[in-house]
Amino acid sequence: MSIGRVPPRIGGDAAWGAEADLMMHIASGSQTAFAQLYDLTCARVFGLILSVIDARAAAEEVLQDTYLQVWSHAREYATYRGSAGAWISEIARDRAAERVRSTATGPRDGDFDTPLGLLSA
């Protein structure tokens, strides 16, 4: 295989190509392509996030963070590494895991001995 050549797609999934094309347009700043990619992938990605995070509101925040990262890092997506859906899912899993870790290691009752009102005094 020559350098720069994209390996053949496994399975020939039409969505794989559509998502990759949309990512190329998103990397160029297309908000329309971003909206189309979101519509194409958000249900699957949200389901993945909900499998990690029980709280719906927190899962919605992670979904928003995920797509914000997709928008801001679209140029980092490379088709030779896999489908755009897999790339987005990886971002979502990482964000969800970060949320779970931050919640698990956040402040607990009794961690603060000083009442909040006394901090400004």
The biggest sheet amounts to:
none
Task: Give the number of DSSP strands.
Answer: 0
Indicate the overall shape.
Answer: elongated
Order of helices and strands: HHHHH
Can you tell me the residue ranges where pLDDT is under 50 for at least 5 consecutive residues? 1-12, 114-121
Helix content: 55-70%
Strand content: under 5%
The Cα radius of gyration reads 19 Å
Summarize model confidence as the mean pLDDT.
82
Our measurement of the CA-to-CA distance between the termini, rounded to an integer number of angstroms, reads 69 Å
Structural class determined from secondary elements: mainly alpha
Helices, strands, pairings?
Elements: H1 14-27, H2 31-52, H3 56-72, H4 84-104, H5 116-119
Helix pairs in contact: 1-2, 2-3, 2-4, 3-4
Structure description:
By secondary structure, the protein is mostly helical. The protein has five helices and no strands. The longest helix has 22 residues, at 31-52. The N and C termini lie far apart (69 Å). The model is unreliable at 1-12 and 114-121 (pLDDT under 50).
Feature tags:
121 residues; mainly alpha; disordered N terminus; disordered C terminus; elongated; single chain
